[in-house]
Design goal:
The chain is α/β, with parallel strands linked by helices. It has ten helices and six strands; from the N terminus they run βααααααβαβαβαββα. This is Suppressor of disruption of TFIIS. InterPro entries: HAD-like_sf (IPR036412), HAD-SF_hydro_IA (IPR006439), HAD_sf (IPR023214), Pyr-5-nucltdase (IPR010237), SSM1_domain (IPR052791).
Length: about 230
């Protein structure tokens, strides 16, 4: 697996898959484990214990990722954040191999690329836990050490994914994500988007298509599986 530098042949379709809460169920509550560790990290760097939750929540809303706010306002050490937050998560005991997911991804007749707001190590661990890490050509991820790194739903994050994957034509790009805002941005960018959520889209422009779980992808895009 690579993290960029590929080139796509003209007319070649590519499917971008989000990872967290998309390839596995949000009912596993990994996002809650992440939040707990972020709050603990915040308290550890001296943030007010009484307002750390409110502050971290505001950073997430303002910057797309809490870690971006922590970097901008607290000058956090990225290596320490990775170690104490992502690195401390018990992913291997929470996320189990998913044979049905593997079969579905294997059967799609497009190039396959992972596209996440997580860091590389976290994304790689999740894919390995699911036993699908060998099915993707590469990962577009957030490099926390990069100044002002882009993240979904910013347009430059989608541009980065196209550049790293070598995709040339937005009309040949497909995308699945559990976040309505991320999917809406992809739709506006020109990709064919799929919202993966048990809740229906709140706005008609949020997604081209909607499924409850990623396993249902063949039901809404059968042309990619034949």
């Amino acid at each position: 697996m690579t993290v960029g530098g590929l080139d796509s042949a003209p007319g070649e379709r590519i499917f971008f898959f989000d990872i967290d809460n998309c390839l596995y169920s949000p009912e596993l509550c990994v996002h809650l484990l992440i939040k707990e560790r972020i709050y603990e990290f915040g308290r550890g760097i001296g943030m007010d214990a009484a307002t750390v939750v409110e502050t971290c929540t505001s950073y997430y809303k303002d910057y797309g990722l809490t870690v971006r706010g922590l970097i901008n306002h607290h000058g956090v050490d990225v290596a320490a954040f990775n170690d104490k937050v992502d690195g401390s998560l018990p992913l291997e005991s929470v996320i189990k191999p998913d044979p049905a997911l593997r079969e579905m991804i294997l059967s799609i007749k497009t190039r396959r690329w992972a596209f996440t707001n997580a860091g590389f190590e976290h994304a790689s661990r999740v894919l390995k836990c699911l036993q699908v890490d060998d099915l993707f050509e590469g990962i577009t991820y957030c490099d926390y050490a990069e100044p002002d790194f882009p993240c979904k739903p910013e347009r430059r994050a989608y541009e980065k994914a196209m550049k790293e994957s070598g995709a040339k034509d937005v009309r040949l790009c497909y995308f699945a994500d559990d976040s309505a805002s991320n999917v809406e941005a992809a739709t506006e960018f020109g990709w064919t988007s799929v919202l993966v959520s048990k809740q229906p889209p709140v706005a008609s422009k949020a997604a081209d298509l909607h499924i409850k779980t990623i396993h249902d992808l063949p039901l809404v895009l059968p042309q990619l599986f034949t």
